[in-house]
């Protein structure tokens, strides 16, 4: 998490720069905490206009972190939530991609965070799509058997 007006490599704390490696360590620690919610969010289908529970839990977590840190600027909290959704969106896009995920030194951090999990997500997406195909292709047969 970055203070308002900062960016990944140039976050300031008491007038000194935090080196990118320290930022990455904090980012990865936060990712580990949020991982179960992201996993669930990627495979939850929103119903109606309700916010999916994993996203609500994530936003509640960020609200608590802001309160614990004494952050009252709504713009900072909005930025945290927007950036979190950006990371989740990138993981979702990568999970549904048919091409192999390749990373370079220029790959954005949102993509790098879930690069190790993407293959597992792709397997789950394929299984889910296969189940949906089987159900849709044979749904009428199953319906007749049940009736």
Notes on the structure:
- The chain has 147 residues and is an all-alpha fold.
- The chain contains 5 helices and 2 strands, in the order ββααααα.
- It has helices at 20-42, 53-69, 74-96, 109-112, 118-146, and strands at 12-13, 16-17.
- The protein has a two-stranded antiparallel ribbon.
- A hairpin with a 2-residue loop joins strand 1 (12-13) and strand 2 (16-17).
- It is globular and about 55 Å long.
- The termini are far apart.
- Residues 7-14 have low confidence and may be disordered.
Overview features:
mainly alpha; 2 strands; 3% strand; 65% helix; 147 residues
Oligomer: single chain
What is the tally of helical segments?
5
Low confidence ranges: 7-14
Q: What structural category do the secondary elements indicate?
A: mainly alpha
Give the SSE map:
Layout: E1 12-13, E2 16-17, H1 20-42, H2 53-69, H3 74-96, H4 109-112, H5 118-146
Antiparallel strand pairs: 1-2
Brief sketch in words of this structure:
By secondary structure, the protein is an all-alpha fold.
């Amino acid at each position: 998490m970055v203070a308002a007006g900062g960016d990944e490599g140039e976050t300031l704390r008491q007038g000194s720069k935090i080196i990118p490696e320290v930022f990455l360590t904090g980012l990865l620690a936060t990712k580990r905490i949020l991982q179960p919610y992201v996993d669930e969010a990627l495979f939850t289908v929103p119903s109606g206009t309700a916010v999916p529970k994993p996203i609500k839990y994530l936003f509640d977590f960020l609200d608590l972190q802001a309160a614990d840190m004494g952050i009252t600027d709504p713009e900072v909290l909005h930025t945290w939530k927007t950036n979190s959704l950006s990371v989740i969106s990138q993981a979702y896009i990568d999970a549904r991609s048919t091409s192999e995920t390749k990373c370079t030194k220029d790959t954005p951090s949102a993509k790098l965070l879930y690069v190790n999990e993407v293959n597992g997500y792709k397997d789950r997406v394929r299984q889910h799509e296969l189940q949906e195909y089987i159900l849709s292709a044979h749904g009428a047969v199953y319906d007749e058997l049940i009736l």
